[in-house]
Predict the 3D structure of the following.
Amino acid sequence: GQQVMQIPQYQHVQEGEDFTTYCNSSTTLSNIQWYKQRPGGHPVFLIQLVKSGEVKKQKRLTFQFGEAKKNSSLHITATQTTDVGTYFCPQNQAGTALIFGKGTTLSVSS
Amino acid sequence: DGGITQSPKYLFRKEGQNVTLSCEQNLNHDAMYWYRQDPGQGLRLIYYSQIVNDFQKGDIAEGYSVSREKKESFPLTVTSAQKNPTAFYLCASSPRWFANTGELFFGEGSRLTVL
């Protein structure tokens, strides 16, 4: 079945450094969503990408969907302590609900 | 304000007791979901409901039960058969059930501890 792998599982950066997390699928995706969960909080929807090669920006966050629709990335420019949390790109599998893996947990030191 | 309300936020239970976690939404969403999260882990799907009066088992349904008698409500019962119930439980909803293209709206979660 479809498998979406997310890397890295953990990333620590100094405040001001950039950060990128990647999601890779073995099969073509119809769309991909990104969520952020702050420590102790609940996941919050960030964005959905649908089109091949799509790039969307939200302030310092840049989301990309690969040309083949098999991978996606989230890039944060100049991280801040408010970026701390776990970022998920859940697996969108036909016939069931979104499947969340372990995501990428970002820690930022000031 | 529209949203999803989970209660209680914190719950302590003795072994052998059943406990029911409440999830209510006023977003008029058709679909609702229950996920479980353990420390440092992702979210695992317990049950989901595409529409009122219907629900399906997720990956880890054993030891849990749900009902969907009203569109706005999707309570989860953690039974004594659930061997390791201590976890963070998250309820979510989405506008429609179609090919998972709708975003999920999450409640703030219920943290269950079994003593």
About this structure: Chain A touches chain B through 24 residues (CB under 8 Å). The mean pLDDT of chain A is 93. The two ends of chain A are 42 Å apart (CA to CA). DSSP finds no helices and ten strands in chain A.
